[in-house]
Amino acid sequence: MTRKWLIAIPAILLQFFIFKHFYPYASFFQDSYSYIYAAMEHDVIGYRPIGYSWFLRLIHAISASDTFLVFIQYCLLQGAGLYLYFSVVRLFSPRKSIQHLLFFFLLFDPLLLYLANVVSSDALFIALSLIWLTTLLWLVRRPSVRHLLLQLFLLILIFYTRYNALCYPVIAAAAVLLTRKGAVFKLTGIVSSVLVLVFGVLIVREATRQQTGVKIFSAFSAWQIANNALFMYPYIQVDPSRLPSAECRELDSFVRATPAHQPVDTWYMWDPQSPLKKYMQMRQKKEHTGYFTAWNKVAPVYSEYGYYLTTRHPWLFTREYLWPSARIFFYPDLEMLMRYNEGESKVDQTAKDWFHYGSTQVRIACSPDLQGRLLGPFPAFYLAINLAFVLGAVWYWIQGKGSAGSAGFRDALLNKSGFREALLMTMTFFAVNAAFCIFATPNMFRYQVAPMIWLFVFTLLTYDRLFSRWIPGPAARKG
Question: 290: pLDDT confidence band, cut at 50, 70 and 90?
């Protein structure tokens, strides 16, 4: 272990300094400026979860340098990867070749550098998610109040970073149920995981009510469900008289007057010509409110309208939105990772002021398209890992339930190491994450980096155990 640390620390520093030679400035996209603006204004709510803006404020209190921010984000990602690596080595004792492969994949993944270089919640969310999942591994293997409290604390941090955390209690519940503890411990773990997010939702909803007058948890989610439902609109007949409210009928008139948009994406949420944006602008003018307040005020209408359409046409919603969204989920777009700073040579004044740049001009010592070429294979790699994991997991359970003649091999697969439980937890994570992301939003590759890393690790560990009958080693001896 000591030798690995002696390799890891210099390698992390060397990679970072080489990278920053070519990319001296952080990279930005539209979300970046909303996070920075919320940090500058000390907002308690925003268009997106406010946690990353709080993180920006914390880092800014130490240093206004964007290089310092990128360094902290990179260290968080690398620290999460090393925590995962040393944990699986200690818990599951994979053979040396697997250990080396995991170590070098987690340490020298160029994707981490590019994610850390973006002013976005992605790096923080990925790091926290990996640390949380690794803590759940320890909870499964060595259940204790300390591990339970740590996962709850991390769950709160993840919730305020990205609302994907709303599905995480299901994964936590699976982990707690797999522990070798009594009913009281399991019930406490499940209920506490749900309650911390319930309280979080109530706090955000009350803050939104105080600031905008609308008692809603996430306006973003309301816009999203309306956006998703509208992709099936050309294929259904909507009787305005049957819509649940006058506001929904008014919104529907805007939808009818707008030509349909075909590719499954977030066009209805962001394009000024979309019916959702036009309806919001109409309400904003009529009610004389600011943009952010108007964004929230229309959210209850969008939620009501979106769920009305989807619940009455589940098959068409599946065909026109969920199925295309599933295809995008398994082969997502690199999106803003394709080009440095989205190909722009300037940043907004907001970024200039926050990071104390001399001007809005930013520069790099290489082509802005280089990262797209380097990261281009990753979506295909992500698809391959998903397929390999599913096949490996199915094979694992088939082999583990084989004939009596393979009892020795079943013991190697399913004995006391806790790997079976860890694999069940990972399968739960895979299924819950897929269901949530496919339903909630058209997927982007950066949303799936944490699942990709986690699945890569457990795919290797699974095949290591499956092949242990032919290549005896620590995994075969210890399970």
Answer: very high
